[in-house]
C-alpha cells in the first residue's frame, strides 16, 4: 500500500518511457522498488546496448521485466544495422537478449519509405512491439522537415503498423523536433499534429520538467511522455497527480 | 578515521539538508557510508513520499536514521493534506512511517496565519521537529511577497514554535525566493533578513554550487543550507572545509 | 561477449578519465560491470578523498583496480598538502590507501617551478603515475595565463617526468582553460598546443557532450578525455564508436 494513500486521487496515467543510458544492474533492481509501477517502456539510449556485455544487458532487462516494463534499444542502433545491412541479425539478437520492443527511426540516416515500412512489418512479424520516431538528430536536417511532412510521416508509420509514434526531442529538449531553441513547444506544429492524429498513439519526448508540466496541463495526466531521465520518473508521477507545485490543484481528473 | 585526516581543519559545520526525490533504498545504504556524517535532515521532495509503497518509505528512513538523520516529507504534501482537510491523519501517518520532522509551508496554497500557527503547534505536540518555509512556488506569486512581509513571516514562524525556517529557492535556484533570474542572491532581501533574525535559525535553499559558495564565504562553514542534491553533499562538505578551489585558502575558522 | 557485437567496429580508443565526486562503493561495484572496460583513470575530485573514511576509500579503489583502473586524488588535495607543508605524508598516505597515480597542479595555489619539478620527481620515486594539470581554478587568474605560457608549462611538465598533462576545463567546462564563456574550444590555444606538443601526452578535460564530440571529430576516437561524469562514460564510448547521432557515420577509424 502507498504511503499517504489517503492523499492520492485516482488518475488515468499515460505511458512513461524512461531513458536508460547505462544504469548499473543492481541499481535498477532497487530503483524499481521505488517507481517500477510508473514505467511502461525503457529505452537503452541510442547505441549504448552494443557496448555492454550480453549478460549485463540480459540482467538489466530481466529486472525491468519483473515490473512488466518493455525494453527496447535506441533507434540509432537500428539505423546502424540498416547501414551495415544486418537487419535480420539485429532483430534476432534483440529477441535473444530479451528486448520486447524496437524503435524504428531515421534520425541519423536517410531511409526510404519502402524500407521503413518493411522494417516495421518485419519487426512485428518477430513479435516485437514497434515504436517509430519522427525527427532528425541534427538541427539543420530537422528544420527541413516541415509541419505537413511530419504529420504525413506520423500517419504513414501508424498505417504501416507502428504501435506508437515518438515525437523527437532528444536528451536536451532544445532546438529540435517539437521544441524551439529555448525548449518551448512549437505551438503550430503541435496543433497540426493533434488535429490530424489520435494523441493516444503519440509519445512526446519531454526531457525537461517545464515540458512535462506543459503536456500534463494541456492534455492531462494521460499524456504519453518519453526520454524521461531515471531521476525524474518519480517527479513525473507527482506532476501527473498534482503532488508538485507546478501542477498542484490545477488538474481535473 | 578519515583518509588524509592530517589535511583536515576542525570546523563548526552548519546544517545540511539533502533533497531525496526518489533514491533507491539500497543505494542510500551504501551512499551514507560515504557522507552520512555530513547530513542532518533529508527531505523527501514535495509529494514524492505519497507514491511509494509504505515499506519502501520505511526502509529508506531507517537507513537515514542509522546516521541520526531526521527525515521529513516535502511541504507540498502538507499543503495537500490541508487542502483535503486531513491534517491529523497526515501527522499520524508521518509518524507511523518513521518521519521525525515536518515541513509547514504555503508555497502552492493560501493558508491563514491562524491555521499555520495551529499546524506548527500540532506538529510539535506530535513530537515532530518543525521546519517552515517562507516563499511561493510560482514566481508571479512569490514576487508579491515583499521584503517586510518575508521578514515578518520568518519571525511569526519562529515565535509560533518552528525549529528552523527555510528560505525558498526551489530545486532550480533561479527567479524565486532569495534568488534573481540568474540565480544570484538578492542582497537587499538577505540584508533585511540577517538584520532582523538569528541566522542560526534559518536554512537557505542553495541548490547550485555558486550559491553554496556564496553563503559559505559570507557566513562561514556554519551556515545552514538546504535543497542539496545527493550528488553535492560531498562537494558541499569540501566547500565548507576549503578543500575545493572555490573556497580553498579563503576561509577563517 | 558484447551485445550486438556484429555492429561494432574496431577502434583505437583514447584514455577516458572519469570524475568520481563521491559515488557509493556498492554502486561502483555494479556500475563497472556496465562500463569498467572503458575507463583508464578515475579522479576522486579535488579534496573529496579527505572527508571519507579510510576503509571507504580503500573499498572504492579496490573495485576500480579490479578493472585495471588507476585512481588518483584531485590536484586541490595535493595543493592542500603543499600549503600545509606535508608533501611526503601526502604521498605515503595516498599509497597506503591504494592510489596508484597523483595529480600535480597549481590551480588554487602559487607553486614555484622548482617545487613543481621536485613534486613530480618525488611522486615518481614513490612509484606513482603522474598527471599534471595546467590551468587556474579562478577565471580571473586563468586569464593571465597566455598561450605561450601554457605551452611552455606543458613542455616543462613533460620534461620533468609527467606521464600526461591535463588541460583544465573544470567540472563546468565554461569560461576556463581551453573553453570560452559558452563552453566552446578556444581554437587559437588548441592550435598552438597541437603544433608544439605530442597530442597523445595530453588529456583534455571535456565535461560536456558537445566538447567530447568536438575532440572526437577533430582527433578521432583515440583522443584522451578527462572530467567525464560517471553518467557519461557509456555515452562517450558510443560517441567514440559512432553509435550516437552526433558522430554516427562521421568517423574514420
From TrEMBL, chains A, B, C:
Record's protein name: Phosphosulfolactate synthase
Gene Ontology BP annotations: coenzyme M biosynthetic process
Class in the EC hierarchy, top level: lyase
GO molecular function ontology, one term from the record: phosphosulfolactate synthase activity
Enzyme Commission numbers on file: 4.4.1.19
InterPro entries referenced in this protein's UniProt entry, alphabetically: Aldolase_TIM, Arch_ComA, ComA_synth, ComA_synth_sf
Family the UniProt entry places it in: Belongs to the phosphosulfolactate synthase family.
Pfam short name (any one): ComA
Superkingdom per UniProt: Archaea
Amino acid at each position: 500500500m502507498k504511503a499517504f494513500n489517503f492523499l492520492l486521487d485516482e488518475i488515468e496515467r499515460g505511458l512513461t518511457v524512461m531513458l536508460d543510458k547505462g544504469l548499473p544492474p543492481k541499481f535498477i533492481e532497487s530503483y524499481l522498488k521505488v517507481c517500477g509501477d510508473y514505467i511502461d517502456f525503457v529505452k537503452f539510449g541510442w547505441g549504448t546496448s552494443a557496448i555492454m556485455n550480453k549478460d549485463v544487458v540480459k540482467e538489466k532487462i530481466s529486472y525491468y521485466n519483473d515490473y512488466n516494463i518493455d525494453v527496447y534499444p535506441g533507434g540509432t542502433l537500428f539505423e546502424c544495422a540498416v547501414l551495415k545491412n544486418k537487419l535480420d541479425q539485429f532483430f534476432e539478437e534483440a529477441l535473444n537478449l530479451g528486448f520486447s520492443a524496437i524503435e524504428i527511426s531515421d534520425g541519423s540516416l536517410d531511409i526510404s519509405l519502402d524500407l521503413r515500412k518493411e522494417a516495421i512489418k518485419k519487426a512485428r512479424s518477430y513479435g516485437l512491439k514497434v515504436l517509430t520516431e519522427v525527427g532528425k538528430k541534427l538541427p539543420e536536417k530537422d528544420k527541413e522537415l516541415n509541419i505537413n511532412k511530419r504529420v504525413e510521416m506520423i500517419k504513414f508509420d501508424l498505417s504501416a503498423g507502428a504501435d506508437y509514434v515518438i515525437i523527437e526531442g532528444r536528451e536536451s529538449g532544445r532546438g529540435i523536433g517539437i521544441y524551439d531553441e529555448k525548449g518551448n513547444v512549437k505551438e503550430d506544429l503541435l496543433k497540426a499534429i493533434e488535429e490530424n492524429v489520435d494523441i493516444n498513439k503519440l509519445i512526446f519526448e519531454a526531457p525537461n520538467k517545464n515540458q512535462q508540466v506543459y503536456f500534463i496541463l494541456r492534455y492531462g495526466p494521460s499524456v504519453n511522455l518519453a526520454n524521461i531521465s531515471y531521476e525524474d520518473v518519480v517527479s513525473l508521477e507527482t506532476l501527473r497527480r498534482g503532488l508538485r507545485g507546478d501542477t498542484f490543484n490545477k488538474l481535473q481528473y
